[in-house]
Design a protein that fits this description.
The structure is a single chain. By secondary structure, the protein is α/β, with parallel strands linked by helices. It has helices at about 15-25, 30-40, 60-70, 85-95, 115-125, 145-155, 170-190, 190-200, 210-220, 235, 240-255, 275-285, 295-305, 335-340, 360, 400-405, 410-430, 445-450, 465-470, and strands at about 50-55, 75, 110, 135-140, 200-205, 225-230, 265-270, 290, 310, 320-325, 345-350, 370-375, 375-380, 390-395, 440. The strands form two sheets. Strands 9-8-7-10-11-14-13-12 form an eight-stranded mixed beta sheet, with helices on one face. The longest helix is centred in the last third of the chain and has 21 residues, at about 410-430. The chain binds 1,4-dihydronicotinamide adenine dinucleotide. 1,4-dihydronicotinamide adenine dinucleotide (NAI) binds near residues 241, 294 and 298. This is Adenosylhomocysteinase. One of its GO terms (molecular function) is adenosylhomocysteinase activity. May play a key role in the regulation of the intracellular concentration of adenosylhomocysteine. One of its GO terms (cellular component) is cytosol.
Length: about 500
C-alpha cells in the first residue's frame, strides 16, 4: 500500500551547478575516491539499502555516490532544516548519468529552509522504501534512528502520548510535529515501524550528540540494532569537529554578518573538540577569546592554550560574539540573551538548537524579531528603567550556523569523516548480525587507514618503523601504533 515518493528537492535545474561542485569536491576527497577504487569490483554493499539522514551538502553528495559505487541503494534526507545545498541535492537526484528530464540518481528529500513538518516528512521518506524497507541507517544526530525507535515503541503501546518530544527532550514546537507524524503513521499502518525496525541491520552515527543518544538507548536496554560510533574514530572527531569547525565557523559568521572579528571579544561556550576549533579560529582572526567550561580538565586545557576562562554571566556586557559548542541544553538562557551588549552576535555550532533558549527570549514582553536576511535575525529588547532599547543578532535561529549560514566543513576534512562512515556501513553489512546489540567503534587499524589515505595529497612523508623499533615499543610495523586508551 505504501507508495513512496521519488524525490523532493528545490529545483532540478540546479543539477549542473551541483555536478561541477561535486567534481571538484571529489578531487579533495581522496579517502572516498580510494574506497571507490578499492571496492569497484567486489561491490561490498550490493544488496544494502541505506537510509541516510545527514546534511545534504556537496561533500555528502560524494559520500552518497561512493555508497552507490560500492553497490548500495540509497535514499537521503538532510538532518537539519537549513543545511541543504540545493544544487548538491539536485545533482544527486539527476545523477552523474541522468538528465533533468530523466533523473537517474538517488532519491533525495531535502531543501534549504524546510519547515519542521517538512523536515520530519523527509525523514519518514528515507525510511519508507518501495518494496522492502531499508536495512542500514547512516545517521547524523540520530533523528532517523529515533523515529524508528519511537515509532516501534508507540506501535506496541498503540498510542502516542501528548508529552512525547523528539528524543524526549527540548523543543516543544517540534514535539507537536513529531507526535502528529507518529499518530498519522499509526493510523495508516500500525505495523510500519515494527517492520522497518526488524529489517535494519545497524546504524552508523556521525556526531557527538547522536552518539550520546545511542549510548542512552543502549543503557536503557532499548537499542533495536547494533550501532557504530563513527564520531569517536580519531580521524573523525579530532579532525572534523576541530579543524572542520576552524574553517566553517568564521565562514558562517562572515557570510551572515560581515562584521570584523579582529580586536573584538568572542566567547566560546564549551572547550571540547568543537570548542577547540572554534576558539582557535576566532583567535586566528584576532579576536580576544574567552572560554567557558564546566569540566575542569577542559577548562585547564583552555587556560594552558592561553585563553581566559570565565563564567558566561561575567562576559555579557563585554563580548561581541557568543558561540555555543556544547551539545548541551539551555547553556545560553533568555536572561543571558537580554543582558548582552548591544548588537552582539549569537550563534550555535552544536548539533541541536536547544543550546540557546530562543523560545524563552521570544516570550519576553515587547521583544521584536526582525529578519535581516534568511537565517539572520535581529532581536530587539524594549527599553527598561535600567537600560535603553538594544538588540542582538541571532544566526540560523540557534541552529548550527556553519551549515545554516555557510556550507559546512570543506571537502578534505569531510573525506576523513565519510571514509569512516563508508567503512562502518561495509562493516555492518558484511558482518550481517555478527555485531552484538550495542555501540561499537571501528578498529584502530581502520582509523589509521583513513589517515593514511589522506597523507599523499598533503605531501606528507611518513616515517616507517624499523623491526627493532616496532619490537621495542611492542607494536606491529604495520600498526596499530597506539593502545586503545591513547587520547591523541
Ligand atoms: P565534546 O563533548 O567534545 O565537547 C563539548 C564540551 O562542552 C565539553 O567539554 C563539555 O564539558 C562542555 N560543556 C557542556 N556543558 C557546558 C556548559 N553548560 N557550559 C560550558 N561548557 C559546557 O563534544 P564535541 O565533539 O565538541 O561536539 C559538540 C557539539 O557539536 C555536539 O552537539 C556535536 O554533535 C556538534 N558538532 C557539530 C558540528 C558542526 O559542523 N556544526 C561538527 C561536529 C560536532
Amino acid at each position: 500500500s505504501e507508495k513512496p515518493a521519488q524525490y523532493k528537492v528545490r529545483d532540478l535545474s540546479l543539477a549542473e551547478a551541483g555536478r561541477h561542485q561535486i567534481r571538484l569536491a571529489e578531487h579533495e576527497m581522496p579517502g572516498l575516491m580510494a574506497l571507490r577504487a578499492e571496492y569497484a569490483e567486489s561491490q561490498p554493499l550490493r544488496g544494502a539499502r541505506v537510509a541516510g539522514s545527514l546534511h545534504m551538502t556537496v561533500q555528502t553528495a560524494v559520500l552518497i555516490e561512493t555508497l552507490t559505487a560500492l553497490g548500495a541503494e540509497v535514499r537521503w534526507a538532510s538532518c537539519n532544516i537549513f543545511s541543504t545545498q540545493d544544487e548538491a541535492a539536485a545533482a544527486v537526484v539527476v545523477g552523474p548519468n541522468g538528465t533533468v528530464e530523466e533523473p537517474a540518481g538517488v532519491p533525495v528529500f531535502a531543501w534549504k529552509g524546510e519547515s519542521l513538518e517538512e523536515y520530519w516528512e523527509c525523514t519518514e521518506q528515507i525510511l519508507v522504501w518501495p518494496g522492502e524497507g531499508p536495512n542500514l541507517i547512516l545517521d547524523d544526530g540520530g533523528d532517523a534512528t529515533m523515529l524508528v525507535h519511537d515509532g516501534k515503541r508507540f506501535e506496541a503501546a498503540g498510542v502516542v502520548p501528548d508529552n512525547l518530544e523528539p528524543g524526549d527532550h527540548g523543543y516543544s514546537e517540534e514535539g507537536v510535529v513529531f507526535r502528529n507524524l507518529l499518530r498519522r503513521s499509526l493510523a495508516e499502518d500500525p505495523q510500519r515501524w515494527t517492520r522497518i525496525a526488524e529489517g535494519i541491520k545497524g546504524v552508523s552515527e556521525e556526531t557527538t550528540t547522536g552518539v550520546h543518544r545511542l549510548y542512552q538507548l543502549a543503557a536503557a536496554g532499548e537499542l533495536l540494532f547494533p550501532a557504530i560510533n563513527v564520531n569517536d574514530s580519531v580521524t573523525k572527531s579530532k579532525f572534523d569537529n576541530r579543524y572542520g569547525i576552524r574553517h566553517s565557523l568564521p565562514d558562517g559568521i562572515n557570510r551572515a554578518t560581515d562584521i570584523l572579528i579582529g580586536g573584538k571579544v568572542a566567547v566560546v561556550v564549551g572547550y571540547g573538540d568543537v570548542g577547540k576549533g572554534a576558539a582557535e579560529s576566532l583567535r586566528g582572526q584576532g579576536a580576544r577569546v574567552i572560554v567557558t567550561e564546566i569540566d575542569p580538565i577542559c577548562a585547564l586545557q583552555a587556560a594552558m592554550d592561553g585563553y581566559q576562562v570565565a563564567r558566561l554571566e561575567d562576559t555579557l556586557s563585554v563580548a561581541d560574539f557568543f558561540i555555543t559548542t556544547t551539545g548541551n541544553v539551555s547553556v545560553i538562557t533568555a536572561d543571558h540573551l537580554s543582558g548582552m551588549k548591544d548588537k552582539a552576535v549569537v550563534g550555535n555550532i552544536g548539533h541541536f538548537d536547544n543550546e540557546i533558549d530562543i523560545a524563552g527570549m521570544a516570550s519576553i514582553p515587547g521583544v521584536v524579531r526582525t529578519e535581516i536576511k534568511p537565517q539572520v535575525h535581529e532581536w530587539t529588547f524594549p527599553a527598561t528603567d535600567d537600560r535603553p532599547e538594544h538588540s542582538i543578532i541571532v544566526l540560523s535561529e540557534g541552529r548550527l550556523l556553519n551549515l545554516g549560514n555557510a556550507t559546512g566543513h570543506p571537502s578534505f576534512v569531510m573525506s576523513n569523516s565519510f571514509t569512516n562512515q563508508v567503512m562502518a556501513q561495509v562493516e555492518l553489512w558484511e558482518a550481517d548480525s555478527e555485531y552484538e546489540l550495542g555501540v561499537h567503534r571501528l578498529p584502530k587499524i581502520l582509523d589509521e587507514k583513513v589517515a593514511r589515505l589522506h597523507l599523499e595529497a598533503l605531501g606528507v612523508d611518513l616515517t616507517e618503523l624499523t623491526k627493532e623499533q616496532a619490537e621495542y615499543i611492542d607494536v606491529d610495523v604495520a600498526g596499530p601504533y597506539k593502545p586503545e586508551h591513547y587520547r591523541y
